[in-house]
Amino acid sequence: MDRYAVIGHPIGHSKSPLIHSAFAQATGQALTYTAIEAPLDGFAATVDRFRADGGRGVNVTVPFKLDACAYATDLADSARAAGAANALKFDGSRCLAENFDGVGLVRDIVHNLAQAVRGRRVLLLGAGGATRGALLPLLEQAPALLFVANRTVGKAQALVQEFVGRGASAAVLAGGGYGDLGNAAFDVVINATSASLGQERPPVPASAWQADGLAYDMVYGKGLTPFLQDAQAAGVRHLADGVGMLVEQAAEAFAWWRGVRPATADVIRRIHVPLN
Ligand code: NDP
Question: Which among 20, 191, 193 is the best mutation to test ligand 1's pocket, defined by most ligand atoms within 8 Å of the CB?
Protein backbone atom coordinates (compact mmCIF):
# COMPACT_ATOMS: atom_id res chain seq x y z
CA MET A 1 0.00 0.00 0.00
CA ASP A 2 1.27 3.52 -0.80
CA ARG A 3 2.63 5.31 2.25
CA TYR A 4 2.26 8.97 3.23
CA ALA A 5 2.92 10.84 6.47
CA VAL A 6 3.02 14.20 8.18
CA ILE A 7 6.37 15.17 9.71
CA GLY A 8 6.68 17.74 12.52
CA HIS A 9 7.94 18.31 16.05
CA PRO A 10 5.86 17.92 18.13
CA ILE A 11 3.34 15.97 16.05
CA GLY A 12 0.95 14.41 18.58
CA HIS A 13 -1.63 17.16 17.99
CA SER A 14 -1.79 16.66 14.22
CA LYS A 15 -5.18 16.12 12.62
CA SER A 16 -3.61 15.20 9.27
CA PRO A 17 -3.78 11.38 9.72
CA LEU A 18 -7.50 11.62 10.49
CA ILE A 19 -8.13 13.97 7.54
CA HIS A 20 -6.17 11.94 4.98
CA SER A 21 -7.61 8.62 6.18
CA ALA A 22 -11.10 10.07 5.72
CA PHE A 23 -10.16 11.30 2.22
CA ALA A 24 -8.71 7.88 1.31
CA GLN A 25 -11.84 6.10 2.49
CA ALA A 26 -14.17 8.49 0.67
CA THR A 27 -12.25 8.28 -2.63
CA GLY A 28 -11.43 4.55 -2.44
CA GLN A 29 -7.67 5.17 -2.53
CA ALA A 30 -5.48 2.44 -0.97
CA LEU A 31 -2.93 4.25 1.19
CA THR A 32 -1.65 4.59 4.73
CA TYR A 33 -1.00 7.95 6.39
CA THR A 34 0.87 8.25 9.69
CA ALA A 35 2.41 10.98 11.87
CA ILE A 36 6.19 11.05 12.31
CA GLU A 37 8.02 13.15 14.88
CA ALA A 38 11.46 14.04 13.51
CA PRO A 39 14.26 15.20 15.82
CA LEU A 40 14.75 18.97 15.54
CA ASP A 41 18.07 18.46 13.75
CA GLY A 42 16.94 15.41 11.79
CA PHE A 43 14.37 16.41 9.18
CA ALA A 44 16.36 15.31 6.09
CA ALA A 45 17.42 12.00 7.65
CA THR A 46 13.82 11.26 8.65
CA VAL A 47 12.54 11.96 5.13
CA ASP A 48 15.37 9.88 3.61
CA ARG A 49 14.39 6.94 5.79
CA PHE A 50 10.69 7.29 4.92
CA ARG A 51 11.54 7.36 1.19
CA ALA A 52 13.80 4.32 1.52
CA ASP A 53 10.88 2.50 3.19
CA GLY A 54 8.67 3.24 0.16
CA GLY A 55 7.10 6.56 1.21
CA ARG A 56 5.43 8.43 -1.69
CA GLY A 57 4.96 11.87 -0.13
CA VAL A 58 4.75 13.84 3.09
CA ASN A 59 3.07 16.83 4.60
CA VAL A 60 5.40 19.05 6.59
CA THR A 61 4.46 21.12 9.60
CA VAL A 62 6.11 23.25 12.28
CA PRO A 63 9.09 23.68 12.52
CA PHE A 64 10.26 22.02 9.29
CA LYS A 65 8.61 23.98 6.44
CA LEU A 66 11.87 25.78 5.59
CA ASP A 67 13.87 22.53 5.82
CA ALA A 68 11.38 20.97 3.40
CA CYS A 69 12.10 23.73 0.88
CA ALA A 70 15.84 23.18 1.23
CA TYR A 71 15.42 19.39 0.91
CA ALA A 72 13.39 19.48 -2.33
CA THR A 73 14.94 19.34 -5.80
CA ASP A 74 11.99 21.04 -7.57
CA LEU A 75 10.08 23.97 -6.04
CA ALA A 76 6.62 24.96 -7.26
CA ASP A 77 5.93 28.73 -7.44
CA SER A 78 3.94 28.51 -4.22
CA ALA A 79 6.89 27.07 -2.28
CA ARG A 80 9.43 29.40 -3.88
CA ALA A 81 7.33 32.50 -3.09
CA ALA A 82 6.72 31.39 0.48
CA GLY A 83 10.29 30.18 1.00
CA ALA A 84 8.64 27.22 2.71
CA ALA A 85 6.94 23.98 1.70
CA ASN A 86 4.16 22.02 3.39
CA ALA A 87 3.92 19.11 0.97
CA LEU A 88 6.54 16.94 -0.74
CA LYS A 89 6.12 14.33 -3.48
CA PHE A 90 8.83 11.80 -4.29
CA ASP A 91 9.51 10.85 -7.89
CA GLY A 92 12.60 8.65 -8.19
CA SER A 93 15.56 10.81 -7.20
CA ARG A 94 13.47 14.00 -7.50
CA CYS A 95 11.56 15.60 -4.65
CA LEU A 96 8.84 18.08 -5.62
CA ALA A 97 7.74 20.76 -3.13
CA GLU A 98 4.49 22.70 -2.85
CA ASN A 99 3.00 25.07 -0.32
CA PHE A 100 -0.77 24.60 -0.18
CA ASP A 101 -1.46 26.69 2.95
CA GLY A 102 -2.35 29.85 1.02
CA VAL A 103 -4.48 28.16 -1.59
CA GLY A 104 -6.26 26.30 1.23
CA LEU A 105 -6.98 29.61 2.96
CA VAL A 106 -8.36 31.23 -0.19
CA ARG A 107 -10.46 28.18 -1.03
CA ASP A 108 -11.94 28.18 2.46
CA ILE A 109 -12.79 31.88 2.35
CA VAL A 110 -14.10 32.06 -1.21
CA HIS A 111 -15.66 28.62 -1.66
CA ASN A 112 -16.68 27.35 1.80
CA LEU A 113 -17.48 30.69 3.46
CA ALA A 114 -18.71 32.33 0.23
CA GLN A 115 -16.83 35.56 0.98
CA ALA A 116 -15.27 37.31 -2.00
CA VAL A 117 -11.69 38.56 -1.91
CA ARG A 118 -11.76 40.03 -5.42
CA GLY A 119 -12.25 43.80 -5.34
CA ARG A 120 -12.36 43.91 -1.53
CA ARG A 121 -10.09 45.40 1.10
CA VAL A 122 -8.11 42.74 2.94
CA LEU A 123 -6.08 43.15 6.14
CA LEU A 124 -3.54 40.39 6.81
CA LEU A 125 -2.09 40.39 10.33
CA GLY A 126 1.39 38.97 10.95
CA ALA A 127 4.52 38.63 8.83
CA GLY A 128 5.63 35.07 9.60
CA GLY A 129 5.46 31.86 7.60
CA ALA A 130 1.67 31.73 7.37
CA THR A 131 1.52 35.24 5.90
CA ARG A 132 4.28 34.36 3.42
CA GLY A 133 2.27 31.38 2.21
CA ALA A 134 -0.96 33.38 1.97
CA LEU A 135 0.31 36.43 0.09
CA LEU A 136 0.50 35.11 -3.47
CA PRO A 137 -2.83 33.21 -3.46
CA LEU A 138 -4.55 36.29 -1.97
CA LEU A 139 -2.95 38.63 -4.53
CA GLU A 140 -4.07 36.30 -7.33
CA GLN A 141 -7.67 36.97 -6.22
CA ALA A 142 -7.18 40.67 -7.12
CA PRO A 143 -8.25 42.34 -3.86
CA ALA A 144 -8.69 46.12 -4.09
CA LEU A 145 -6.13 46.43 -1.28
CA LEU A 146 -4.04 43.92 0.66
CA PHE A 147 -2.45 45.49 3.74
CA VAL A 148 0.02 43.44 5.81
CA ALA A 149 0.25 44.70 9.40
CA ASN A 150 2.81 43.35 11.84
CA ARG A 151 4.06 44.08 15.36
CA THR A 152 7.63 44.21 14.05
CA VAL A 153 6.99 46.82 11.38
CA GLY A 154 10.18 46.25 9.36
CA LYS A 155 9.23 42.61 8.79
CA ALA A 156 5.91 43.56 7.18
CA GLN A 157 7.59 46.19 5.01
CA ALA A 158 10.33 43.81 3.85
CA LEU A 159 7.81 41.08 3.09
CA VAL A 160 5.62 43.40 1.05
CA GLN A 161 8.65 44.49 -1.00
CA GLU A 162 9.22 40.85 -1.98
CA PHE A 163 5.68 40.52 -3.34
CA VAL A 164 5.12 43.89 -5.04
CA GLY A 165 4.02 43.33 -8.64
CA ARG A 166 3.07 39.67 -8.04
CA GLY A 167 -0.44 38.28 -8.49
CA ALA A 168 -3.25 40.05 -10.33
CA SER A 169 -2.37 43.49 -11.67
CA ALA A 170 -5.35 45.17 -9.99
CA ALA A 171 -4.16 44.25 -6.50
CA VAL A 172 -2.62 47.02 -4.38
CA LEU A 173 -0.19 45.72 -1.74
CA ALA A 174 1.02 47.72 1.26
CA GLY A 175 2.47 46.98 4.66
CA GLY A 176 3.40 48.51 7.97
CA GLY A 177 2.51 48.55 11.65
CA TYR A 178 -0.87 48.52 13.37
CA GLY A 179 -0.45 52.25 13.94
CA ASP A 180 -0.30 52.81 10.17
CA LEU A 181 -3.86 51.54 9.69
CA GLY A 182 -5.37 54.89 10.71
CA ASN A 183 -9.14 54.79 10.30
CA ALA A 184 -9.13 52.48 7.30
CA ALA A 185 -11.87 49.81 7.23
CA PHE A 186 -11.46 46.30 5.79
CA ASP A 187 -13.91 43.77 4.38
CA VAL A 188 -11.76 40.77 5.27
CA VAL A 189 -9.45 40.67 8.31
CA ILE A 190 -7.22 37.58 8.53
CA ASN A 191 -5.27 36.82 11.69
CA ALA A 192 -2.04 35.09 10.58
CA THR A 193 -0.26 35.93 13.84
CA SER A 194 0.30 33.27 16.47
CA ALA A 195 -1.22 35.57 19.15
CA SER A 196 -4.32 33.35 19.61
CA LEU A 197 -2.16 30.39 20.68
CA GLY A 198 -1.32 32.34 23.85
CA GLN A 199 -4.82 33.83 24.24
CA GLU A 200 -3.40 37.20 23.13
CA ARG A 201 -4.82 39.60 20.55
CA PRO A 202 -3.27 41.56 17.71
CA PRO A 203 -4.10 45.26 18.29
CA VAL A 204 -6.66 45.75 15.50
CA PRO A 205 -8.11 49.28 15.64
CA ALA A 206 -11.90 49.40 16.13
CA SER A 207 -12.27 51.30 12.84
CA ALA A 208 -10.83 48.37 10.86
CA TRP A 209 -13.88 46.12 11.35
CA GLN A 210 -16.89 46.10 8.98
CA ALA A 211 -20.21 44.67 10.16
CA ASP A 212 -20.78 42.74 6.90
CA GLY A 213 -17.13 41.69 6.68
CA LEU A 214 -15.26 38.51 7.60
CA ALA A 215 -12.90 37.97 10.54
CA TYR A 216 -10.77 34.86 9.94
CA ASP A 217 -8.38 33.41 12.52
CA MET A 218 -5.92 30.89 11.02
CA VAL A 219 -5.61 29.21 14.42
CA TYR A 220 -8.13 26.37 14.81
CA GLY A 221 -9.72 24.40 17.61
CA LYS A 222 -9.42 27.25 20.12
CA GLY A 223 -13.04 28.41 20.03
CA LEU A 224 -13.69 32.15 20.08
CA THR A 225 -10.15 33.54 20.29
CA PRO A 226 -9.50 37.09 21.60
CA PHE A 227 -9.21 38.20 17.94
CA LEU A 228 -12.61 36.70 17.08
CA GLN A 229 -14.09 38.09 20.32
CA ASP A 230 -12.96 41.59 19.29
CA ALA A 231 -14.51 41.12 15.85
CA GLN A 232 -17.76 39.88 17.35
CA ALA A 233 -17.86 42.79 19.81
CA ALA A 234 -17.40 45.17 16.86
CA GLY A 235 -20.46 43.61 15.18
CA VAL A 236 -18.66 41.57 12.50
CA ARG A 237 -21.18 38.98 11.30
CA HIS A 238 -18.92 36.39 9.66
CA LEU A 239 -16.42 34.73 11.99
CA ALA A 240 -14.25 31.72 11.13
CA ASP A 241 -11.26 29.82 12.43
CA GLY A 242 -8.63 28.00 10.36
CA VAL A 243 -10.06 24.50 10.38
CA GLY A 244 -11.34 24.87 6.81
CA MET A 245 -7.91 26.10 5.71
CA LEU A 246 -6.32 23.04 7.30
CA VAL A 247 -8.67 20.63 5.55
CA GLU A 248 -8.47 22.45 2.20
CA GLN A 249 -4.66 22.42 2.12
CA ALA A 250 -4.84 18.71 2.92
CA ALA A 251 -7.26 18.19 0.01
CA GLU A 252 -4.86 20.01 -2.33
CA ALA A 253 -2.00 17.74 -1.26
CA PHE A 254 -4.18 14.64 -1.60
CA ALA A 255 -5.19 15.66 -5.14
CA TRP A 256 -1.56 16.38 -6.03
CA TRP A 257 -0.44 12.95 -4.81
CA ARG A 258 -3.37 10.83 -5.94
CA GLY A 259 -4.94 12.67 -8.89
CA VAL A 260 -8.37 12.76 -7.24
CA ARG A 261 -9.78 15.68 -5.26
CA PRO A 262 -11.72 14.64 -2.14
CA ALA A 263 -14.83 16.46 -0.92
CA THR A 264 -14.04 18.46 2.23
CA ALA A 265 -17.35 19.52 3.83
CA ASP A 266 -17.88 16.34 5.90
CA VAL A 267 -14.33 16.30 7.22
CA ILE A 268 -14.48 20.00 8.17
CA ARG A 269 -17.74 19.30 10.03
CA ARG A 270 -16.17 16.34 11.85
CA ILE A 271 -13.18 18.21 13.27
CA HIS A 272 -14.68 21.67 13.68
CA VAL A 273 -14.82 22.91 17.28
CA PRO A 274 -17.76 25.32 17.82
CA LEU A 275 -16.64 28.94 18.08
CA ASN A 276 -18.70 29.68 21.17
P1 NDP B 1 5.36 32.60 12.85
O2 NDP B 1 5.99 32.28 14.15
O3 NDP B 1 6.15 32.44 11.60
O4 NDP B 1 4.87 34.15 12.88
C5 NDP B 1 4.14 34.62 13.96
C6 NDP B 1 3.64 36.04 13.68
O7 NDP B 1 2.75 36.39 14.72
C8 NDP B 1 4.73 37.11 13.64
O9 NDP B 1 4.43 38.02 12.62
C10 NDP B 1 4.61 37.75 15.01
O11 NDP B 1 4.98 39.11 15.04
C12 NDP B 1 3.13 37.66 15.26
N13 NDP B 1 2.76 37.66 16.68
C14 NDP B 1 3.01 36.72 17.61
N15 NDP B 1 2.46 37.06 18.79
C16 NDP B 1 1.84 38.25 18.61
C17 NDP B 1 1.09 39.11 19.46
N18 NDP B 1 0.87 38.79 20.74
N19 NDP B 1 0.57 40.24 18.93
C20 NDP B 1 0.79 40.56 17.63
N21 NDP B 1 1.50 39.77 16.77
C22 NDP B 1 2.02 38.63 17.26
O23 NDP B 1 4.03 31.75 12.80
P24 NDP B 1 3.27 31.21 11.48
O25 NDP B 1 3.19 32.33 10.52
O26 NDP B 1 3.87 29.93 11.04
O27 NDP B 1 1.82 30.85 12.05
C28 NDP B 1 0.90 31.85 12.45
C29 NDP B 1 -0.40 31.20 12.88
O30 NDP B 1 -1.07 30.60 11.79
C31 NDP B 1 -0.18 30.10 13.92
O32 NDP B 1 -1.06 30.33 14.98
C33 NDP B 1 -0.53 28.82 13.20
O34 NDP B 1 -1.17 27.89 14.07
C35 NDP B 1 -1.52 29.31 12.13
N36 NDP B 1 -1.50 28.45 10.95
C37 NDP B 1 -2.66 27.80 10.61
C38 NDP B 1 -2.70 26.98 9.50
C39 NDP B 1 -3.97 26.28 9.12
O40 NDP B 1 -3.94 25.36 8.31
N41 NDP B 1 -5.12 26.67 9.66
C42 NDP B 1 -1.51 26.76 8.64
C43 NDP B 1 -0.36 27.55 9.06
C44 NDP B 1 -0.37 28.34 10.19
P45 NDP B 1 6.52 39.58 15.13
O46 NDP B 1 7.07 39.45 13.74
O47 NDP B 1 6.45 40.98 15.59
O48 NDP B 1 7.19 38.65 16.12
Answer: 193
